[in-house]
Amino acid sequence: MKKEFVVIGLGRFGGSICRELSEQGMEVMAIDIDEDRVNEFASIASHAVVADTTDESVLKSLGIRNFDHVIVAIGDDIQSSILTTLMLKEVGVKKVTAKAQNDYHEKVLIKIGADQVVHPERDMGRRIANNIVSNNVLDYLELSDEHSIVEIVANESLAGNTLIDLDIRARYGINIVAIKRGKEILVSPQAAEPILLKDILIVIGADKDIDRFEKKMN
Ligand code: ADP
Hints:
The chain is elongated. 38% of the residues lie in helices and 27% in strands.
């Protein structure tokens, strides 16, 4: 069965989610209080509606509780974001993802029952900072406060060694789950696999251990 989504707030973030979902063939209802924004999405989303989502009767008349997943992408208007999220949970929407502008906003959204809270500016900022600070780290995905998956480029100090030679799991407590080599990707690489210069190692582990490994490389 096709999943049905609602995106509320068609700014840069919500608009981008709406476009991507539509491109992937999903049914999307796009909502914004601003008519111009809604018109922009009329030919992209399955339905585009002008509505103020802080009004419970509006949400009910749109039949919003029948959708699988609602994304609240209201930006600067934190009060509207909070009220909308609260109403959505009150009318019985099963899954609500809400965008937080800051840590306090995030706390409130979680308290009032948002099922998932995203913080795109903060997370992207962290990723870019990590990428800038370290020469070898290409990208990183935070798994928890203390664990991540990181892409590290193999430099001269690693190249030519096999995974056995490096003994990374025993020495650092981290795991290389895959190696990207040009267009090829070796998933669960064998212990005897030699690492080549410029290989991209996809490493999973505790941040402090990944950090230790990464410092050792330089
Ligand atoms: P971004 O930072 O992602 O660009 P914006 O703050 O520009 O976010 O966009 C948020 C959108 O949410 C705006 O288009 C705004 O009109 C819409 N919005 C704000 N309040 C409401 C509301 N109560 N109901 C529906 N849409 C709203």
